[in-house]
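We include this case.
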Amino acid sequence: MGEIRSTLDIIMEKAKEVEVTDEDKAAFVKHEVEKKVRGLLQKALEGFIDVEGFQSEIEALGPDRNEMAMSALRRECLERLVLEGDNQGLLDILSRVARFDPTPVEKLLLTYQGDLDKKRADRQATLREQLKTRGIWGSALVPNLKADPDWISYSAEARDRFHRELLGLCQAC
């Protein structure tokens, strides 16, 4: 027990020498707020809290942390947008809780989704033709794009371009 106590004493002595600056404190607060926002957003997207409850939780953080929370919420929502999936919950939270006009984001999203849908149809047609030349055809034939290296590469590039353009569109977030 004495050994543990002396080790603890040494640690406490060293800890006394450590100073936490205002900058460190601000970073801790920012990290704490971002963590809280991520958790609340996840709860809202999973249906555990409604938009009004989400808004109440954000307001409960206090006026000094509210703008930090709104900024973190806008960033988190924008980072979670996907080209292939339902984004309505995120867009709803952006407009109703984060007080952010999602119109430019929706336009960009629709543009990229339309392009992706067209490229998907073109790639499937190409793969059907390739299979037909190998003697595989039929009305029930659906090429597996998830296993096609060209499609995987194209869709990953499209997602990257979308997120880069989205960040450019929302620099003020």
